[in-house]
Amino acid sequence: GEMQVHLQSMVNLLRDNDVLRLVVKLETKYYLPGKVRYLAVVSSFSLDDIEESVVLGIDWVDESATIGLVLPLWRDTAIELDGDGGFELSTNSTVHFLKPVSVQTMWTAFQWIHKCSDNARRNNQYPAGTSHSWVKYYENQISSDQTCIKEWYVTFPNSKEDELLRKLLRHKLREVMMTVDLEEVTSRQVRELVEAEVQMDLKQYKQYIDKEMLTIFGQMDSASKIYDHVYLGSEWNASNLEELKENGVEYVLNITKEIDNFFAGTFTYFNIRLWDLEDSNLLPYWDETFKFINQARDKGSKVLVHCKRGISRSASTVIAYGMKEYGTSLNDTMKHVKSRRQCVNPNQGFWKQLITYEGILNSR
To answer: Per DSSP, what are the bridge partners of residue 231?
Structure first.
């Protein structure tokens, strides 16, 4: 049948050892006689047998298949249903809107892309890294008609103004959620309160606000008291002025690239601007963070050490502090910190750095 012919043409576009994981038929807005659009997920395996995947946008026009879109699936790839039978596929700062022809194919595509992006996160595959070099082969094969390519590249990169607005919405959303009874309000009511704060209609940001609300909910536990003078927490804890004051915190150690200091005129801050990536190098900062934490102790104060969620970057730094301050082993320190904050889970890169740091401390 027709589908079999189309599939064979798509297979002919692939390199010999690449695997066609998924083919899904998509709706089209730009009509051409006999035109059909397909989304394909293609995988290749590295020398270490690690899977790497890419989305291909394939156009069937004039009895032949051509490539119109090549989209590597990185660790930052996100896929979300758009509520209209399609989904948003965002990666490397752009968003592509894709709509399969049926609910079943939409769900199948959603599951496969989610699975591939999870694999990319586990193996730390990101745009500036060493994976996906083979994708250049497909980028060089892009040959669809310009009308077809235009449809694939109806993208909406986040503008600087949009990023600033999202940052403002995150801040206002936290403020609103700290002042209402969350058991008595709906997400719509929360959004309306944020709208009143910024004096804007935020319907187009409904999905973003709902997602941020869930993130904030996940952060809303109190900061964890690890040692008498050291609290470990999240962005939420760093923005909660009442909690900071109740805990006697006057020093804040902010270990994030993405979060500003909330009360710069009120507390003493020390910033380490790093992402939670396995190749981020925290180890060189641990002597400085040790001094900063003890400075707070010597002043009779408490210190909050935080990152986005209080799980990896900040937790690793508190573990490094505990090993040096109390002379405990990495495993014992990890057990202690985890007993006080169960969600602690340094990424593999930070764990290797902690092993190295333990060796450095033992050799002194």
So the answer is: 225, 304
pTM over 0.70: no
**Same domain for 193 and 90:** no
> Which pLDDT tens digit goes with each residue over 309-360?
899 999 999 999 999 999 999 999 999 999 999 889 999 999 999 999 999 9
Half-sphere exposure of 324 (CA within 13 A, CB side): 21
For residues 182 and 323, membership in a common domain is answered with no
Domain assignment of residue 174, given as a range: 160-220
Orientation of helix 313-326 relative to helix 348-363, angle to 10° = 10
Q: What CATH code is carried by the domain that includes residue 69?
A: 2.30.29.30
233 shares its domain with 214: no
The answer to whether residues 210 and 240 belong to one domain is no
Distance CA(307)–CA(256), nearest Å, equals: 5
Same domain? 250 vs 119: no
CA–CA distances in Å: residue 344 to residues 5, 132, 164, 256, 312? 52, 31, 30, 16, 6
Cβ-count burial 140-161 (b if 16+ within 10 Å, e if not) = eeeebbeebbebbeeeeeeeee
Strand-by-strand arrangement of the 268-271 sheet? 224-227, 230-233, 302-306, 249-254, 268-271
Report the domain count for the chain. Answer: 3
- Last residue within a domain, chosen from 153, 178, 207: 153
Shared domain for 216 and 91, answered yes or no, is no
Name the pLDDT band for 83 (thresholds 50, 70, 90).
low
Tally of CB atoms within 10 A around 50: 14
Residues with active-site annotation:
307
pLDDT in tens, 127-154: 878 899 999 999 999 999 888 888 887 6
Shared domain for 210 and 93, answered yes or no, is no
The CB density around residue 52, as the number of other CB atoms within 10 Å, is 23
Q: Are residues 279 and 336 in the same domain?
A: yes
87-91/64-72 β-pairing: unpaired
With H, G, I as helix, E, B as strand and everything else as coil, classify residue 181.
Answer: coil
